[in-house]
Amino acid sequence: MKRIGFLSFGHWSDSPGSQTRSASDVLLQSIDLAVAAEEVGADGAYFRVHHYANQLASPFPLLAAAGAKTSRIELGTGVIDMRYENPMYMAEDAAAADLIAGGRLQLGVSRGSPESVIEGYRYFGYEAPEGSTMADVARDNTTVFLKVIDGARFAEPNPRPMFPNPHPGPLGIQPQSPGLRDRIWWGAGSDATAVWAAEQGMNLMSSTLKEDESGEPFHVQQRKQIEAFRAAWAEAGHEREPRVSVSRSIFAIVNDLDRRYFVGGGDRSDQFGVIDDFRAVFGRSYAAEPDVLIEQLREDEAIAAADTLLLTVPNQLGVDYNAHVLESILTHVAPGLGWR
Question: What is its EC number (predicted)?
């Protein structure tokens, strides 16, 4: 395990005990948590993107602000739903945020998960052409996005522009941020989409659920997905080494407050069910004393196969407590998994 970061769903509500009671609270505390995570030694700060919900939605202002307040930590998404995105405008936003952060963005993109409304992308002005699906649209948008952040020049220049064109011939999206193309991840929910991501030269981001393709335990199916991704990557002949992340809910019990929040809670085993018209397997959560956690996590085949672990955090419990959650894992658990 080379890198450990956090993944925040960015919830807010006025429920009792919530320290994020508004969108403003979530955004400002997300920046503060990225700063705190960097201070305790974490490697990454990642944020979920959901529409029509009391959760984080537009990632680039947040990533840019966090980039301006930090200096080392990776900043990413898990994931941006490409059914909702204009890939040209997104390319401009992504490059600008990456430049502000000094080249630290790690953008997870995908078809996305079920939203709070039916076919919400239609309200954003997007619809699948006849004969295709919105999953096709998401992949097509991603393909365009990858090309334009990689410097594609395709737009016919105005022969009499307001300002001189920087070079002759077609123009491309500006600004460009060198290296961003290698820091795009695909959130794969199946073995087939993991293979597709490898073929496109994207890193693999695997979450706490995937399509149930064999009935085996979640971590075993996820490990096999990672193996399929790496095999497809090698077959494609890409020159660089790909990255792979997995997400887990893991809490080290080191004080009475931890015990009050997490002892007796969470899922002790995998769950199987139907989501978005396919059968899925959901990974278990972990909450135990550090020595017990180390033994449990050593048996997780997907964690062993990945290079990056993203810890889902209860963001509504506030910055201080979540910084404690991260520091407890980094101090008492991560070294036992080979981190640093």
Answer: 1.-.-.-
